[in-house]
Amino acid sequence: MSSRKQFRAVFSKVLQVTVTADFASAAASVSNGVNVAVQGAVPGDFVLVTPAALTSPAPSGGFSGVVNAANQVRVVYHNDSGGTVDLPSQSLRVTVLGW
Question: What is the pairing mode between strands 31-37 and 61-69?
Answer without folding.
Answer: unpaired
